[in-house]
Amino acid sequence: AVPSFHRFLMALSHMFEGEEPALRLVRGSLIQYVGYGFGDASGSGFGSSWLNKSGELVIRIGMWNKEGVDTSSNYRELRNLVETLELMGQRGELEGFELFLFTDNSVSESVAFKGNSSAELLFELVLRLHNLEMKFMCKINIIHVAGTRMIEQGTDGLSRGDMLEGVCRGDEMIN
């Protein structure tokens, strides 16, 4: 067996542990709400911004602990996105939604779309993404955008502790 075989079996076991088969939204028949946000991570910090269903700006900002600092930039970028989505789920902002989350990290887009990664830490984050989609019956789209777009929008600054750029200073989320 390949070295990742045990990891895949554990993931399948987790995904099929319920009494009822897990469902996953592939394409909704009725769009009630489409959400969008941005997420970015730097060497020492992270930031995310999104508009909630009421159209209010919500931001998430923080510094990495030792676990985040001692990992790859790809891991930090995807972890920030996953933790942002988990927070949105706790706040009731995922249930039945289709969400577009933008990042300047192409690896995050790639592994989320593929649904897999040979890197164990990235694989665990992709599994958390799938679990969010099943738990909240939502569709999550992680999309790569240019770094210049992240700077203009303001989330790039959030990951560095700057709350005076883009949406944080009052610019529109989409322009």
Describe, in short, the structure shown.
The chain has 175 residues and is α/β, with parallel strands linked by helices. It is 40% helix and 19% strand.
Poorly predicted regions: none
Described by strand count, sense and barrel closure, the largest sheet is: 5 strands, mixed
Number of helices: 7
For the terminal residues, how far apart are their CA atoms?
51 Å
What is the N-to-C succession of helices and strands? Answer: HEEEHHEHHEHH
Give the overall average pLDDT.
87
Q: Strand-residue fraction?
A: 15-25%
Task: Give structural attributes.
single chain; 175 residues; alpha/beta; 7 helices; 19% strand
Task: Give a description of the structure.
32% of the residues are buried. 40% of the residues lie in helices and 19% in strands. With 175 residues, it is an alpha/beta fold. The chain has helices at 5-15, 66-69, 73-90, 106-114, 120-136, 147-153, 155-158, and strands at 34-41, 45-51, 57-63, 98-103, 139-144. The chain is built from seven helices and five strands; from the N terminus they run αβββααβααβαα. The mean pLDDT is 87. Helix 3 (73-90) packs parallel to helix 5. It is globular. A hairpin with a 3-residue loop joins strand 1 (34-41) and strand 2 (45-51). The longest helix has 18 residues, at 73-90. Strands 3-2-1-4-5 form a five-stranded mixed beta sheet.
